[in-house]
Amino acid sequence: MGGPRAGPPGVDPRRGKLMCVKVRLLDESVAVFHLGQKATGQTLLEEVARHLNLLESDYFGLEFVDNEGCHVWLDKDKTILRQIAGTTDVKFHLIVKFYTPNPMDLEEEYTRYLLSLQIRRDLSQGHFLCADSTAALLAAYFVQSDCGDFSPDDYPDPSYLSHTRFVPNQTIHFQQKVMECHKKLIGLTPEDADMQMLEVARRCDFYGIKLHPAKDIEGTEACLAVMHLGIKVFHQFHCVSTFSWAKIRKLSFKRKKLLIKLHPDSYQCYKETIEFYFETRNECKNFWKKCVEHHGFFRCVQVEFPRKDTKLFSKGSAFRFHGRTQRQLIDYVREHHKRREPFTRPLRSGYHTCGVASSVGGAMNKQVHLMPDYHDHDIVIISMIVELFLMLKAHLPHALDSNESTRRRDGEVDLDSILNTNDSTEMFESDYGQSTSEVAAVEKIRQDLRIQERTLLRDAVLISKVLHQRILDFTKEYYLLGEMFTYIDAISSAITRFIQDLDALETESPDLPTRFATLILAASGPSISKQDALLRNMTTYISAFYQLYQTNTEFRRTLREFEQSPECYLPVVWLLVRVMNRLFHWQEAGARIVETLLSFGHGDAALGTARMAVDSLAHHAAATAQKRKLLYDFATLLEIEKALTGISPLTHPDRQLLVAGRVSENCGIDFIPSLLLLFNDSLIIARQSANKFAVLKVIQMHTLKSGSVSQIIHQSRNCFALQTIEETLIFASKNCQAWAEELTSAIKSYTRQPPSLLKIEMVLGEGECVLDSEIRDPNKAQSLLASCWSKGGTLRREEVHQMAERWRAGLVLRKLKTSSGWQKLFVLHAHGHLFFFNSHKDPSPMIALNLIDYTVSVPTLQDNIAFRNVVKLSHQQVAYFFRTDSHYAFLRWIESLQYSCSSRRPLDALTALSVHL
Predict the structure, then answer these.
(1) 12 is a domain residue
(2) 445 and 568: one domain?
(3) CA within 20 to 30 Å of 129's CA: 280, 461, 525, 899, which one?
(4) CA-based nearest residue to 734, from 651, 828, 797, 671
């Protein structure tokens, strides 16, 4: 027999009495918690934070109304029953307890989202006082976050705002102001709308202000408020004085009287002790406790826990602030927030016309951001799921209609018949992609992993056989190259054996999930050792390639011929990176096996093997993460070196490309297109010259100071200015704010810890580098700089890393926006491109599509696509539709493509709904 089962928090195991606690959250939903009768306030706060998956929970608190009608905070140290004694039907409210002076310091988007909900509540309840124009702007940000862009077709008049209360005594005139402000916010994502709203709100006088009525020593009515910087005194809603924490020597209360003792050098205009009187003792003590907690949270670096007083009688209140300070919270969150799971921002339906029809027309074609998954399945979550499902059904009536065949137009191809071959998978299900058994679901995972392994095998053979054969004479002299090809050849053999083992699995056997997981676990050990050995020396191997390329003309000619051959669709260095990232798909496959088994109710016994495989692969990924990033940086520098002329060598283990992009440089009369390359030690300005980029200027980072970057308006264009020792450079860009932030961040990082690097210098003549072709072929990937130049966009270091790690292959049907039929193709997504093959047996792609600035979504009603599982890629007036053979493949393609297409634009509402439901 096992030990006693753990009960709810705070339960006495001998008595086991429970109480039901209701908490109204910031989104106005109600969560119910069952706690023991001895549970403290800290227990309830932890349960709420766990329920919301809230990491920065110390900014929040729980408020309730006591038996005297006062709004008080729940004390963490006391039991809940002791605090609510004498009250009936107590309901706690989750509130923002500590308003941070700069919301941008909050690490997590979800915390900023909750803070925006609190501002919304304060504004609607009349606590947040501001001018009508400011209130209208704040309300417009709320509407933009909830509804998306303004559309005159959907919102012809301000009546769409009448169902939502923004301010007390809301009028039609105010709603007209909100609508006018809403029109000016087109293009803002929900996250951007929240951030800009918080930036406006924090500059208002009543940001974070909760007034407490009192009187001064002369009997004049006043209102006190505590905030991050100290205590403010208001008279008729005007701030008449402020006592900062630096001025206050001691803060105490005696019955109804609050005493503020000032430092000797701070009360020239005041008495030594300032007194205020409250209506009751409890009101006075309540405000004093809030002051103590604000001082401890914002002013202290850490709070010391005093010893317990052993005296029988004590003088004064024993209340002290025992939580984490803001400094401790920031340090804790920065260590943990990167491992957090994404959250989905709930769609609000409080606006009259921002429902289904408007989102199809574009008004709601905005990102759905992320909110933690709730652990408690209460009625709020059920209603949310029902609402989302109904919205999805309204958006995709054809996709959810079982009588799909009656809607197929002439000239369209039946995917079921086309993909019913040995090299494809027939995985359509009657219930919109959900498998009828765990065996069928795991079979989809097996088929998908087999396709990825088969595609990767072609790249490994291309290097270990074809390239090796061409440069065989050189590998005899350079043993490092021979050693690298030996590792690659071993990986090729391992891939072949693994594919054979996958084919040998009995796909209809009931124990397929266990056997599949056992196969991954058994193969992961040898594969991990091979991958580690190759990764450990990969930078050395690539450096040997580079040195040989620089010094040997015959080797340079041979390598160029190979890279210009039709079958080499990527530069050699990125083909090597693809081979290095083989095990990513293994880890994802193992995790989906676990997810599938859990969804069908299996216990730990059935999950053991799959979990062991996932843990082993996850440990390998975490252990090699830093080495892989260094490899990506090294490969990026080699590619940039190839594309630039007139520059000294860039490659160095400590050098990183932070941002690259096309800008317009002001040259007096006009703006001239230029290429801006920001490294962690320098800034390079270049312009296109023939088939390369000529370097015009190199600015060393040590010549720039923290305030060197600013945003300005120049010649009616949004620009950013860069102040150097010699001159001021002005650049225009559609990503002006992002450039300014990246430059400022790079300068600060260099100032704190300058890297030890050789200075980049301009040189005469053309230098050459390795691993790229000089002629742009339509069936090959564009270089990073060429992509930025042709699309006028920017690429960050993190985006390049994502492009290196995210790849996918599979059989799909493709259709252009202007065509009537579907074409069967084998498509490979790698390095930010889509490569199109007639079949998986083709040695070379027909054409390559650069995905920078493309948007990934699902078709809308205007696209007139009468099939399910269709992915839409669009850029300006160009649109591609890709139809997958199953809902499982559809989800995998969405996941893979969004990193190349929408790294700065999350999925729109319709696509997010179709993915999550």
Answers:
(1) no
(2) yes
(3) 280
(4) 671
